[in-house]
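Hi D.,

Good news: the full-assembly prediction came through. Inputs first.
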Amino acid sequence: MLAKRVIPCLDVEGGRVVKGTKFLDLRDAGDPVEVAARYDAEGADELVFLDITASHEARDILLDIVRHTAEQIFMPLTVGGGIRTIEDIRRLLQAGCDKVSINSAAVRDPDFVRRASDRFGSQCIVVAIDPKRVIENGREVWRVHINGGRVPTDKEAVSWARQVEALGAGELLLTSMDADGTQDGYDIPMTRAVAETVTIPVIASGGCGSPEHMVRVLTEGKADAALAASIFHYRKFSVAEAKEVMARAGVPVRMSPKSEVQGPKS
Amino acid sequence: MIVIVDYGMGNLRSVQKAFERIGRKAEVTDKPEKVAAAERLVVPGVGAFADAMAALRARHLVEPIREFCARGRPMLGICLGLQVLLDDSEELPLGAPAGAPLVKGLGLIPGRVVKFGPHVTASGLKVPHMGWNVVEFVKPSPLFEGMPRQGVYFYFAHSYYAKPLDEAVTVGRTEYGGPFASAVAVGNIYATQFHPEKSQAVGLAVLENFVTRT
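Then the structure:
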């Protein structure tokens, strides 16, 4: 049975993990490669690097990080943030990442999703959707925002999800802007509405404060994967602890392989 | 020397790094003579079937791969690198009309590559089949020696899968809306639909087995 995935997200700014200041026992608290290695050891199923800087210099730093991470860690890596061109994607994939997450560029030019998926295959094109609940004409709308949530678009979450699926997205990364940062739990109704609309996998994001939140979004919310940043960054829970809770709740998860197979010596 | 076939389809470096991690040097090349003369050959691949076959032909790699196999040396196909070993694929080139002829593969393993269709999505499963799923070791294979159980999670990312004509070639089986062949072996040819290079310790163990036990 396909396991539900637990995906730690690392917010990277200028080459450093910005939420990682409490990693006191790491040699370099904000070094993305070290943080990634810890999540790897804890049994994370995938990793997401979200580049929250946009400058060109920062992009080159990010490519270096991806390169170094991919030398040490043998699990799927997704990179998002500021991806605008086919060349951006090509360079990231060449550096060793497996999937890219496209957000604003998809809204500005939906055909970019199609071109990217034609060129690299849909399995490596993730479209990130950041909806916010707003009232328009007396009716609640799940309005898709871009530019880190600052700019509303004319897209609505569910129909936009359907549209990017048709364009060739292989996966969706759905972040509720209302829930993001609250640690009060994922937006279950929104996640479920999107997950029931598309036939591609949906990664739920925004609001995770506990493993129980993950359980809910993977069962009631029908998500295929749960992404979280703070609870792992601040060591509220390890990935392994979260998975234990999930397994007890009956969610199919993959426990850390480290305990089973002795990895080859490097 | 382990040779990784470079035909411009995807994550060659990841595969090379995984071999480096287990202390093996692997050369990435698109030179036909190096492919034909390799000790061990790895055919990785991410992307579309028709593109892959076109790239193999454009780089004159089809014959060298056949030649390599005929020598009886061990070969490992990964993901799309498994699919191209079959006779043909339902995955049509972009823009091809429905009902267009199927795309021919290398024909080293009799069978067809088919899509996870409505039988999968109707049961609420998503396509691509993306993430960690259990590979059940249905027949002994050198690739899976030393595995802790009869079934272990590996990482998958694909929308099409191989349907070998002869079920006996299936050494690993995975459930996704029904069973499919997630690892096959025909003589010296080994291939996995999952990505050993992305499957952490168990994946590296498969690569190590390929190097030391085949």
